[in-house]
Here is the input.
Amino acid sequence: MHKFLFLFVAVCFVGCSSLPEGSCKKDTQCSGAQVCFEGKCISMKKLKEIKEKRAADAKPKKCEDKDGDGVKAGDGCGKDVLPDCNDDDPNMAPGKNEVCDGVDNDCDGMVNEGLKGCVQTLFGGATWGNQKEYHLDGPAAVLYDPAGFILVTDSHHLWQVSLDGKVTLLAGSSLSNFKDGKGAGARFSYPLGMTRGKDGSVYVADCKNNCIRKVALDGTVSTFAGKCSNFTKDMGQFADGPASAARFYCPSDVAAAPDGSFIVVDRGNARIRRLAPDGTTSTIAGKGPMEVREGEGQDGFADGPALDARFNDPQSVLVDSKGIIYIAESFNCRIRKLDTKKGENGEVSTLAGDSDTLLGVGGYADGAGKGAKFNYPHGMAWDDKGNMIVADTGNGVIRLVTKSGRVKTLYGKVSAEKGIYKDGPVKEARFKAPMDVAPGPDGSLFVVDAEANRIRWVVR
Here is the structure.
């Protein structure tokens, strides 16, 4: 009997407690890796957080105006005080007037907003509007809508951005795949160029899905032409025919033609294709890729009859009011012209640019025809005078090309210091890798600066 009582008392001494659950007087009364702190069992991580907060709270609080601009900043200013966003720069303070200096003068997260003669960041890198909620990832193309917003494609999304900085996801997801549907329920895989159709819908070249998608005004996405698939077995295909039978290989751009059809740059197949309003597809230029020879890695170059012509990494396309087609060709560093009314099936010629077509070596030079030089040109758009504005990606500049083939530089500067971008006065602005352009209101221009992950806005 005494032996049993001794064991009962011993067990209660170790395991019985009158303390509420989660309370403690020492570490042994806590489970697992928890410790006893001020009568509560907490994790080591929580203990560290508490100690760090108390140490920070114990430090003297500051609320001062270091830069002398009349606005204080610091952890002691209180929640009701609008703080200086950068107390080391007297040019930055809430309520200051915005000036064209590439600085967020008024602390609203945006620089040079709407100022003439300035370049600003509209989306990506800005903190104004609701942009902290969104992340721009590898932007590719931009399209301006006179309703007062731009559309932007990036790795897997179609974004809508108002000119006051508000961002809306029109369609797509951070997941790369194929799926028709509405808004965030749809899936893209590296969508590139796009255009508006007569019905107001947006037609998108969905590169890695190897098809052309249609996006309605409410964000509903459907397949317009081709077999949408990013599976390896479905890549590299080529076929003309009805919309469902057509096959593409990484289409990179699409443009609306005056007759209601669409012209598509079928980049991987090195061809230019025409899509009827019902999606029926035909090839109008390009013989297709050549067999790649070791050390050259190109798909060829040849002007002449349209179906015998050769393209190498064609990127974007424009169609004028007469139905003449213009193609920006990256590897051959040229702007090509396709006149479908010449000869039996049309004729391809070089409008501007010259390069080593075996090595893909271009250059930089303003001038006319072959006297001009480009370095991997990409996106194009018409200006209000019928000239082409071209994103000269490799040179980091924006060029203007007339229909006679004369080329001049509009914005940016070619420099030995590569890979920089800079907002501010137009003459001082720099672009890192401009990929596409879209004319905006009042002679302004939107630029996709791809490597900078920004949409830039040039306001003249």
Residues 44 and 148 are 53 Å apart (CA to CA).
